[in-house]
Amino acid sequence: MPNICVYCGSSSGNHPAFTTAARALGAAIAGHGYGLVYGGASIGLMGTIADSVMASGGDAIGVMPQSLADKEIAHQQLSTLYITSSMHERKTKMADLSNAFVALPGGLGTLEELFEIWTWGQLAFHQKPIGLLNVEGYFSDLITFLDKSQQAGFIKPEHLQMLIVADKPEQLLEQMASYTPPTAGKLESTEK
């Protein structure tokens, strides 16, 4: 069964739609027979999506560095919880366990994870789909900025198109299921 890695906030944010979307995405992931890979916390949107996946009959796999597990925020009812020695090891483990990646609303950590996994795809280190669930337009300004970066010549159009954006979980999962990776990585020329 393929696993979808979800990056999201360890807080719930200040709009109830964020929690609703995390629940809906969790149910959709389990409903499609996918497993969840995420940061392993019991709090915020992280805890919400894990609970939703498990309540819908799916597997939830957490990956957390020891330093955070020591603060007692690790979810104790997960299908599997991996404890790593560092954040770098955590992110590598999450990527290795996953067949696709989705970002829900979140803060600096969520954005950092999204951009790192997208960069790995751009460099052709993987060919897995990457999606944004644009809940209540949370990522709209970021999408505008990314378009501006592409227009300024810093992001190739084919790399910008790697990011799949939708505002409904089912729509996002459908688009990700039909994803075709670009044929050239960042370091390869696309010109003939």
Can you walk me through this structure?
- The protein has a single domain, classed as Rossmann fold (3-Layer(aba) Sandwich), CATH 3.40.50.450.
- Helix 3 links the parallel strand 3 and strand 4.
- It contains 8 helices and 7 strands; from the N terminus they run βαβαβαβαβαβααβα.
- The protein has 192 residues and is an alpha/beta fold.
- Strands 4-3-2-1-5-6-7 form a 7-stranded parallel β-sheet, with helices on both faces.
What is the third-level CATH name, the topology? Rossmann fold
CATH architecture: 3-Layer(aba) Sandwich
The helix/strand class is: alpha/beta
Q: SSE order in H/E notation?
A: EHEHEHEHEHEHHEH
Could you describe the largest sheet, including whether it forms a barrel?
7 strands, parallel
Number of strands: 7
The strand line-up of the biggest sheet is: 4-3-2-1-5-6-7
Distance between the terminal alpha carbons, to the nearest Å?
39 Å
- Our count of helices gives 8
CATH class: Alpha Beta
Proportion of beta-strand residues:
15-25%
Report the mean per-residue pLDDT as an integer. 94
Helix content: 40-55%
Question: Keyphrases for this structure?
Answer:
Rossmann fold; 192 residues; alpha/beta
